[in-house]
Design goal:
422 residues, mainly beta, 18-stranded antiparallel β-sheet, 2 helices, 3% helix, elongated
């Protein structure tokens, strides 16, 4: 019997309702200093499931999100000692994300299962900045100084960062018996990255409106394409009456641009204690072939991705975790604690001094960085009838070290969150 289901959902912010007063003051261009700041988003989710028969199922999921931020600063003064002026500054930023994923599941036999995935992802980041200066030298002036004929100078720049990837993945699960199963798979990802297109325009005018200076600059980075492939194998073994579960595994990666191949082993274990307790631990190595160009001064994460190369090889992390969790019955509560340690190398840092820095990012990026992240996470939750509560606390350190920064001395990363209580 064929079965199908469809789900669609959307949401949006209503922050605009709380900033209407400030927005109206800016739109009226009132005398004095006025500012308007607004952030909002909307997103759409759609999912379609179809069951051809009990052994064959198809899943399709689509996501689209649009985040936007707008900042306006106005400083207007008219009718003051023959010097009426207006300084206006405006920044608009939009972040758009599109994700489409299709998965097909097939039951080959009572012991063999197969999953096939195809996905497409695209992100786009637009940033627009506009700064204008208006001036009118007349003591009797009582009009609107924010008028094109009174414009004396303006600077406008536009930045666009975008990228997309097309990925395919196949995975097979073989259940040898209730205590032992194998998982194997392979995947390929084709990355298309656009690290930035830029437009910079400047203009200065005389009192009579004549253009004294004008410059337009257009520059950008070439589009880069990278192919990333991987194959992995994982074994799941249950022993001691299923009290102890072991997860040995390995992953082989290759990146076309740097022609780099990495071997990432990993191992995890879980042991179920009597009376609802459990101890779990994991150790492994993970590799990331993409670098992100984000400096500490960036207002919003720009998601500017570039591929690793011979000068800036892949980033590698060695991770160790161990934790304990327990269900507190009959209180319908649970608590857990996890300790983690992560050592990283191949890190990069990018500190742009102006928008044009992105056009020559390879000379602005600093590599050969190392990092250490460690700490503890605590979680407690409870449910009593129709009431539920959750509390989480993290105590962690996240440090970085670069030979060419801070005289080679270790410093806290911008991701350092010493105390985080929720």
């Amino acid at each position: 019997l064929k079965k199908s289901s469809f789900l669609i959902a959307g949401r949006a912010t209503y922050l605009d309702l709380f900033t209407l007063k400030k927005k109206q003051a800016v739109n009226r261009q009132q005398n004095g200093y006025n500012t308007y700041n607004n952030f909002g988003f909307f997103d759409l989710n759609a999912r379609f499931n179809h069951e051809f028969d009990p052994k064959n199922k198809l899943f399709l999921q689509i996501y689209y999100g649009d985040d936007h931020q707008k900042n306006i600063d106005q400083n207007i003064l008219t009718g003051y000692q023959s010097n009426s002026f207006a300084d206006l500054s405006q920044t608009n930023q939009t972040l758009k994300n599109l994700s489409v994923c299709m998965r097909y599941s097939n039951v080959r036999s009572d012991k063999l299962f197969a999953h096939y995935n195809i996905s497409f992802n695209r992100y786009e980041n637009n940033i627009k900045n506009l700064a204008q200066h208006y001036q009118y030298r007349d003591s009797l002036f009582r009009g609107n100084v924010v008028d094109e004929q009174y414009l004396k100078s303006q600077t406008q720049n536009y930045r666009l960062f975008s990228g997309e990837n097309l990925a395919g993945r196949a995975e097979w699960v073989y259940a040898h018996n209730p205590h032992h199963q194998f998982r194997a798979g392979c995947e390929g990802i084709f990355h298309t990255l656009r690290p930035g297109d830029f437009t910079l325009a400047q203009q200065e005018r005389a009192d009579d409106g004549a253009v004294l200076f004008e410059a337009n600059l257009v520059f950008g980075n070439p589009v880069s394409q990278h192919f990333e492939t991987a194959a992995y194998l994982e074994d799941e073994i249950s022993v001691l009456g299923k009290r102890l579960t072991l997860h040995p595994g390995v992953r082989l990666n290759h990146f076309s641009s740097s022609n780099q191949t990495t071997f990432d082993p990993r191992f995890a274990a879980e042991y179920r204690l009597p009376h609802g307790g459990q101890i779990a631990g994991a150790i492994g190595i993970s590799t990331q072939f993409l670098h992100t160009l984000n400096g500490d001064a960036n207002r919003i994460d720009k998601s500017i991705w570039v591929g690793s190369n011979k000068n800036f090889p892949a980033q590698k992390a060695r991770i160790v975790t161990v934790g304990y969790s327990k269900n507190l019955l009959p209180l319908q509560s649970s608590c857990s604690i996890e300790l983690f340690y992560r050592k990283m190398n191949g890190l990069t840092k990018f500190n742009p001094d102006d928008p044009k820095a992105y056009a020559d990012w390879q000379s602005k990026i600093i590599g050969a960085g190392t990092g250490i992240s460690y700490g503890a996470d605590f979680l407690w939750s409870t449910t009593v009838k129709h009431f539920s509560a959750t509390a989480a606390y993290s105590l962690s350190w996240n440090d970085r070290k670069f030979p060419l920064l801070n005289n080679g001395v270790t410093f806290p990363a911008k991701y350092d969150r010493r105390h985080d209580l929720k």
